[in-house]
Design a protein that fits this description.
Layout lengths: L8 H25 L2 H10 L7 H23 L4 H23 L11 E2 L12 E2 L8 E12 L7 E12 L3 E14 L3 E19 L2 E12 L5 E13 L4 E12 L2 E14 L2 E12 L3 E12 L1
Antiparallel strand pairs: 1-2, 3-4, 3-12, 4-5, 5-6, 6-7, 7-8, 8-9, 9-10, 10-11, 11-12
């Protein structure tokens, strides 16, 4: 029995082109994922231009002359009642802002809780305490975490996150965050990016097992970018027991009209003045996003 082999050139070319396409697709995807840091740098360095700037400027100049005439006529009709009404609404806004952000020290007892020497020093103590024997006027928290890119993303990306908090009694604290991002691609190239966040923090809620507050400051991106932007955020700690707690922070900023945001959540295991942490961090720097698993620890001085 003879077996006849028939060579089909069309079928051979189709299989060859399919393999070539798959190889090309994999190469492009590796290059794309391997250059996220370079893309972030380009986004933060590029100058934003608006096509409507020239027309809007011309329209604004034309409308300014009309507005000046209208304002001159309206200013003469401003009365004392208008000023009193504006002052009344300004007082209401100030009242709401103060009691929402700062708090009512006359009626909210938790605002008078003292800063603890270190969290979990006692079963019922977190960052704050109402017991004088556990209180201190100053505390320095140092923490370092190693970040690894989520393996499902296909990226060879890693980073280091160093954080320092200087607490001044129970009222304010200064917070410094330094993230160093690294990304390997083409088996030999390594892209780097450094980000620094300087913030002043205030805890609006200071319950022994829970604290919640605000951050405000500056976010700076180095590594040749050397640009900064206004930064603000939220922070919370929840203490489950004398050993375990959950720490979450979200920060937002804009540099060169591009978002530079960070979010982190991690669990901490406390052992006297030391702690170990395991969690998750998500960054957005320009268009690219970065998702890391974090592991590290710290010490309370």
């Amino acid at each position: 029995m003879e077996l006849e082999f028939i060579f089909n050139p069309n079928l051979f070319l189709q299989k060859k082109m399919k393999k070539t396409f798959l190889v090309l697709l994999c190469t492009l995807s590796i290059n794309f994922y391997g250059q996220k840091i370079d893309r972030s740098k380009k986004d933060l360095e590029s100058k934003k231009t608006s096509s409507t700037n020239s027309s809007s400027t011309e329209n604004q100049s034309n409308s300014n002359s009309l507005n000046d005439n209208n304002n001159n006529s309206k200013s003469s009709t401003t009365t004392v009642e208008d000023l009193e009404t504006a002052g009344f609404f300004l007082k209401i806004i100030s009242f709401i802002f103060y009691y929402s952000v700062v708090g009512d020290y006359d009626n909210e007892d938790h605002l008078h809780n003292n800063l603890a020497k270190y969290p979990c020093i006692d079963k019922y103590v977190g960052n704050y305490t109402n017991k004088e024997k556990y209180a201190t006027k100053f505390r320095l928290d140092l923490e370092n975490n190693f970040l690894i890119e989520d393996l499902s993303s296909g990226n060879t990306s890693y980073a280091n996150h160093f954080k320092a908090k200087a607490h001044f009694k129970q009222y304010f604290y200064g917070q410094f965050d330094n993230r160093l991002l690294f990304e390997k691609y083409d088996n030999s190239q390594t892209a780097k990016l450094a980000m620094f966040q300087f913030n002043i923090g205030y805890d609006r809620v200071r319950i022994e097992h829970f604290n919640f507050g605000f951050l405000i400051g500056v976010n700076t991106v180095a590594s040749g970018i050397n640009k900064a932007g206004f930064n603000y955020g939220l922070h919370a700690d929840f203490f489950l027991n004398q050993k375990l707690s959950v720490d979450a922070t979200a920060q937002w900023s804009t540099i060169n009209s591009e978002p530079v945001n960070s979010f982190e959540i991690k669990g901490k295991y406390h052992l006297n003045r030391k702690f170990f942490s395991l969690g998750y961090e998500h960054l957005r720097i320009g268009t690219p996003t970065y998702s890391y698993v974090s592991i590290g620890g710290g010490y309370y001085f």
